[in-house]
Amino acid sequence: MLWPGWACAVTLQSHVGVYELTMSKNRSDSGIAGVSGRLVLRVTDSCDGFAQFQRMVLLTSSADGEEIVRDFNFDSWESGDGTEIRFDSHDTANGKVQSRHTGRADLSAVGGEGKVVFSEPEPGELRLDAGTVFPTEHFKILINAAREGRHSVERRVYDGSGPDGVYDAVAWISKPDTPSRDTAVSEQLGDGNAWNVQLAYFKPATHDFLPEYEIAFRLHENGVASDLVLDYGTFALNARLTRLDYLPPDCSASRP
Predict the structure, then answer these.
(1) Distance in angstroms (rounded) separating the CA atoms of residues 215 and 228
(2) C-alpha distance from residue 193 to each of 78, 145, 154, 174, 235 (Å)
(3) What pLDDT digit, counting tens, does each position of 104-145 carry?
(4) CA distance 56 to 66
(5) Using CB atoms within 10 A as the burial measure, which of 143, 145, 193, 238 is most buried?
(6) Beta strands in the chain (DSSP E)
């Protein structure tokens, strides 16, 4: 079976992006007074796949004045055909480890079923339904859908964040109708094709009409995301891309 989105080759540009985070929405019952921070995203073409590293550091102030520094890290490698991912994710709060998940996931074939095998925090397995994709392959599917003029895409995604990392991702795609807010990197982004994407992540089979979280961004044809908004329900963050460095492929890029 040929799954839509795998038909055309997508070339993702290796790059490092630095995003400055500020709170843009805060619900009255969130218990949060303020959030600020920084997100660093590095994507590297490893010749046989793509290595990705994300680090997000947030300073959160609670309504009663308590400050918490959360440090989220995600390191992964995904094969070029999208059938394998290796991952290591962990986060801390004020230096204390909150969670860690290390392992790998494999699909029997493109579009086939698969399995996640965890090595940390303890050995375990998770079955993946046929049609599940991993994050980099999902990004390629979105770019292909945008090229083809499609306005919506639905995929089951396993994101490597642990046993709860399976989501039904629903994307809405449109052409930008306003200039990019991330003017600091407009020269690097140039005048290539770009699309506005709204992504909502739902937990499978919960029958809950509300997503776990949502992401909005301008998707550039080379795989860079600008004009990023991270919406966690009780609060949302604007992520302004302030620095963008393009990198050459690195065939020795490390795998978790």
Answers:
(1) 7
(2) 25, 13, 22, 12, 30
(3) 999 999 999 999 999 998 999 999 999 999 999 999 999 999
(4) 20
(5) 143
(6) 15-26, 32-45, 49-62, 67-79, 84-93, 96-107, 114-120, 124-128, 152-158, 166-174, 194-202, 213-220, 225-231, 235-246
Instruction: Name residue, tokens 């550091």.
Output: 57
How many other CB atoms sit within 10 Å of the CB of residue 193?
A: 12
User: Could you tell me the pTM of the whole model?
Assistant: 0.91
Q: Model confidence over 231-245: pLDDT tens digits?
A: 998 899 999 999 999
Please state, in angstroms and rounded to a whole number, the distance separating the CA atoms of residues 106 and 47. 19
Integer Cα distance of 179 and 196 in angstroms: 11
**DSSP code per residue over 9-52:** ---PPPEEEEEEEEEEEE-TTS-EEEEEEEEEEEEEE-SSEEEE
Domain ranges of the chain: 15-246
